[in-house]
Design a protein that fits this description.
It contains 15 helices and no strands. It is mainly α. The chain has one domain. Helix 6 packs antiparallel against helix 14 and helix 7 runs parallel beside helix 11. It is elongated.
């Protein structure tokens, strides 16, 4: 519990900042709900633009707006935050040369890693929860009703995506000792794949090709339409989480740290 509390407190300021950013972005979108639904924006959007966000066949306009609101960049907030926290678990300690003190504690390395992963999971959950709450309750307060249970599932899918990206980043970070390099590299890659997903959608690239981008495993429109996560997406995300964590524990237990 002490290890968890120390790492949680160390990330408290950053957590509040990212929660505030996510909330403000979500509020900016929810404040445009009436304009989108009643101001003719939806009807004026060309089919090619709507296709960037998925297949909206059979969906009501509120659910469509919820899907676009999450996919319009809001989804980037928790995923980028998850990557940053993952990099701070070990790489930042190595970069600051404080890892020796961390390893000198009378606990096993696995306990150190497990406590920090617990903080990662809690913080990612909180950032997602703030965005979900704003979308859910602000839009509802304006008199619009969406498929809220489906929105819940959508954010479960998003949480899994965040944890998968974090697990893979953590595994790779075991071989990166420069925190600033790691942050630039992984934030750049994650952002690139986010935009690449929309380029692929706009070009009507097949799903098989789009599987190279992590954001293809969160089909927001499909989840909002059906209320379920695609089986393939679910399996891939769980495998990425378990595989990334497995490699992380294996590498951390064997990693030699220079004084």
């Amino acid at each position: 519990m002490t290890l968890f509390r120390q790492f949680f407190v160390a990330h408290l300021k950053g957590l509040f900042i990212w929660m505030a950013v996510g909330a403000l972005m979500a509020i900016a979108l929810t404040r445009s709900t009436a304009t989108f639904i009643e101001g003719g924006v939806f009807e004026a959007m060309p089919a090619s633009m709507l296709a960037l966000y998925g297949d909206f066949t059979g969906m009501n306009v509120v659910d469509i707006y919820l899907t676009i609101s999450v996919g319009k960049g809001t989804v980037l907030i928790p995923t980028l935050y998850a990557v940053i926290v993952a990099l701070s678990i070990i790489t930042r300690e190595v970069d600051r040369r404080t890892v020796e003190f961390l390893l000198a504690l009378p606990v096993q390395r696995a306990q150190v890693l497990l406590s920090r992963l617990a903080v990662l999971a809690v913080n990612v959950t909180l950032v997602n929860a703030v965005i979900w709450a704003v979308l859910r309750f602000d839009i509802s307060a304006q008199g619009y009703e969406g498929s809220w249970a489906h929105l819940d599932v959508l954010f479960v899918n998003l949480w899994l995506l965040c944890m998968a990206l974090a697990a893979v980043t953590l595994a790779a970070s075991m071989w990166i000792d420069d925190y600033s390099v790691g942050v630039k590299l992984f934030l750049g890659l994650v952002t690139l794949t986010f935009f690449l997903e929309y380029v692929f959608r706009g070009a009507q690239v097949s799903r098989a090709v789009r599987l190279i981008t992590p954001y293809s495993y969160a089909d927001l429109a499909m989840v909002m339409r059906s209320g379920t996560i695609d089986a393939l997406n679910l399996i891939v995300l769980i495998v990425a989480i378990l595989g990334g964590l497995g490699v992380s524990f294996w590498a951390f237990n064997r990693k030699q740290f220079s004084a």
